[in-house]
Design brief:
Layout (H helix, E strand, L loop, with lengths): L5 H5 L2 H13 L10 H11 L6 H10 L14 H34 L7
Length: 117
């Protein structure tokens, strides 16, 4: 179940629309730089955070079909070549990472101290 904040649940549609319009026209954070300590705090909060399956699906649905900024736009041959190269590199990196993880798991099993002492 979706949790609503106390403020947004008490606002009328008219008030919400007015606030949205005001923030689009005169947002107090527009063109402001965020201080380094705040950035560090945000990085620390989001690092290692796992998204819930519902969050992942919501993000996926938000960019499907005509909602995707690249929808209906043809890719140039150069863009296709760059994407193919990037995908190959990522696939090789993924395979290498899996190989290392398997090796580490096997080494952990082989190098465990014996319990027969």
């Amino acid at each position: 179940m979706k949790k609503k904040s106390k403020i947004s649940s008490s606002w009328t549609e008219e008030r919400r629309g007015a606030m949205s319009k005001r923030m689009k026209e005169n947002n107090p954070m527009k063109n402001k730089e965020v201080s380094r300590p705040v950035v560090e705090k945000l990085i620390q909060f989001h690092t290692g955070r796992k998204r819930k399956p519902e969050e992942i699906e919501k993000c996926r649905q938000a960019k499907l079909g005509s909602k995707n900024p690249a929808y209906g736009k043809p890719q140039s041959e150069e863009a296709k070549r760059k994407n193919a190269e990037s995908n190959k590199i990522r696939a090789l990196e993924r395979a290498e990472r899996k190989r290392r993880e398997r090796e580490e798991a096997l080494n952990g099993i082989v190098n465990e101290p014996s319990q027969t002492d």
